[in-house]
Every structure is written in C-alpha cells, then in structure tokens.
Design a protein that fits this description.
The protein is of the alpha/beta class. Strands 8-9-10-13 form a four-stranded mixed beta sheet, with no helix packed on it. A three-stranded antiparallel beta sheet has the order 1-2-3. The chain starts with a helix and ends with a strand. The chain is built from 13 helices and 13 strands. The chain is globular, with a radius of gyration of 25 Å. The structure holds iron/sulfur cluster. The site of iron/sulfur cluster (SF4) has 14 residues, from helix 3 and helix 9.
C-alpha cells in the first residue's frame, strides 16, 4: 500500500475528526496489519514523537512489512497514530537515502560514492581544517534521534579526539526552554507525573501544545477522559492559535505570541491573591526563587515579584481572545 502525502493528511484528519466525536476507532491500519502475512512480530517502541507508543513490527523475509500497537501497553493501549503506523514504509521507500552523495562544488550534481570514500573525505576535511585553523574550526551537530551510544561516541570523537567543545544537538532547539523549566521548577530534566494522571484529573491545562496533531495517541487519552466525564472534567487550552486541540477544550485562551510568561505570572498572581493554593503542599514541597540569580525568597517576596502581573495588566500584554466552548 502506498500512501501519498495528500492521502496521509486526509487520513490523519479523519482519525482526528473521529476522535472528536468519541468514535472508538481501531486506528486504521492496525487491523490491516494483523491480516498481513508475516514471519514474526518484533516488539519495540515508536521513536517518532515523545509519547513512546509500544508497537510490534511484522517482519517477512527480513524486511518490515507491517506495524501494529501492543494492546496491553499502558502507554498506548494498542493504538498508533498515522505517523507511527506508517513508519515501516519509510524503511523501504524507494527514495530513501542509502548511500552517501557527494559533489565537489555547489553547482555540480550529487553523485553516489562508497562509504569508504565518504569517510575518507570527511576525515581529510576535518584534519585539514584543524591543521590550518585550529581545533575550534570544526563542529558536530547531532540529532535527537541518535541513540545514546552514537551520541556518546561522537562526543568522544569531538571532545577527546578533535579537542573541541563545538558540540551541539538539534534537541536544544525544541527542548532547551523545557529543560530549563524542568530543572528550575522540579530539579530534574524530566517532566513530572505520568500518563495515568490523566485518568485521575478533573482539570487539564494545555499550553503551547497542539497535542491533537503532535502527540495524537496521548491526546486520545485526554479526549477519552473528557468525553467520559463531559461535565466533571474541564480542559483549558492556552495557545496563540486555535488548533484541533482546542475543539475539546471548555476554554481556549488565545494570547498574543511571546506573551505566555505574562499569562502564567498573572495566573500565579490570582492563585496567591485569592488563596487558591494548598498551603501545606507549598510549605512542604516548594521553594520560591526570583530574579536572574534565582535567589530563594519567602512567599511574600515572591508575591511582591508578581505585583505588575495583575490580570488587567496581563490582559493588555497578552491581548487576544478567551473563548468558552460548551
Ligand atoms: S503518538 Fe504516534 S508518533 Fe508518537 S509515539 Fe505514538 S505512534 Fe509514534
């Protein structure tokens, strides 16, 4: 089965739309995959997004021919989104790059070369640069999809071998602010809590995330919780854009791009001002820090740091709309 880009978008949209009305879809090709003739199913985890759905890959003659979710997985309960479900096709797509391509000059077309030649060329280029311009004339830019071992190896080559700290990774572009937030808020570079909290929650606040499209299988759990408890569970979505995620939200807070800090500080202002917090929890598990040097302060000083974030002032900064849906 070949799936065009248009087809993919249509099918993703259909799955998302079905989700809105609570259809308990078997998520498309999962059932198709079960009908495929395979030699064996190999278990693994989808690496396409951070949800971490467990899956099984059907292998025939040493080639991947199907994918299906693992029903007993407590992450995805057998469901996969379109991205994960069609992943196996990438491995055998005729346009997949399997050999190094090289061109001497930018105006020349690429031509295939062997791996040995490619590695020799790369080694020569690095050696010449270091010799001519010094150790910091070279850099490594890695992918977040690299395995831990691959990243470790490259760090050794760059720092230990080529003696430069010019090592960078694309995760910094997507995760740096999140890591900063986790470290300063929770003391560890990890989100706290677990997926199962969704099934115990009565109010969910989603900010800056179009999870309906970016993390569809996890979104499905949020949606299921809402649909099972339409009156008890409230969902607030805060995002400059109205996205498919907004459709199940009771309230969409559409703020001006780049003003999310004002919004969050105004929420903190109201929570403290109206005594909406759990005093025991704050006393036992929280510290307050303010300023660039993250100086530890008491709650009164933290409250004072929020003085300029009254809801009225924040509303002027954030602009936008607040829409309450049914
Ligand atoms: S939500 Fe989709 S892309 Fe993300 S891990 Fe699950 S199947 Fe893969």
């Amino acid at each position: 089965m070949s799936v065009s880009r248009r087809d993919f978008i249509k099918r993703s949209a259909a799955l998302t739309a079905a989700s809105y009305v609570g259809m308990n879809l078997p998520i498309g090709d999962v059932n198709v995959a079960e009908a495929v003739d395979v030699d064996n199913w190999v278990r693994g985890t989808c690496r396409l997004c951070g949800v971490g759905c467990r899956l099984e890959m059907g292998v025939k003659g040493g080639r991947p021919v199907a994918l299906r979710g693992v029903p007993e997985s407590r992450t995805n309960y057998g469901y996969l989104c379109m991205k994960g479900m069609l992943f196996y096709k990438i491995m055998q797509h005729p346009e997949r790059l399997k050999k190094p391509l090289y061109r001497e000059k930018k105006d020349q077309p690429f031509r295939e070369i062997s791996w040995d030649t490619a590695l020799d060329l790369a080694a020569k280029g690095f050696a010449e640069s270091v010799k001519k311009y010094g150790h910091d004339s070279v850099a490594y830019y890695g992918s977040g999809q690299c395995l831990t071992e691959e990243t470790y190896l490259f760090q050794k080559v760059m720092r230990g071998g080529l003696q430069t700290n010019n090592v960078e990774g694309n995760p910094r572009l997507c995760m740096a602010s999140a890591v900063g937030g986790y470290l300063t808020s929770f003391g560890a570079d990890e989100p706290i809590g677990g997926y199962a909290n969704v099934e115990r929650s009565y109010c969910m606040f989603i900010i800056g995330s179009n999870m309906a499209e970016a993390h569809p299988v996890f979104y499905r759990r949020v949606m299921r919780r809402k649909l099972d408890n339409p009156d008890k569970v409230k969902i607030i979505n805060a995002d400059p854009r109205i996205s498919p995620t907004s459709r199940i939200a009771d309230m969409h807070m559409q703020f001006r791009p780049g003003t999310d800090m004002a919004l969050m500080n105004a929420m903190a202002y109201v929570i403290i001002d109206e005594n909406l917090y759990d005093e025991k929890f704050l006393r036992e598990y929280s510290t307050f820090r303010v300023g660039k040097d993250k100086k530890e302060v008491d709650m009164a000083a933290y409250k004072a740091s929020l003085d300029e974030y009254t809801p009225e002032k924040a509303a002027r900064v954030c602009g936008g709309n607040i829409t309450a849906e049914g």
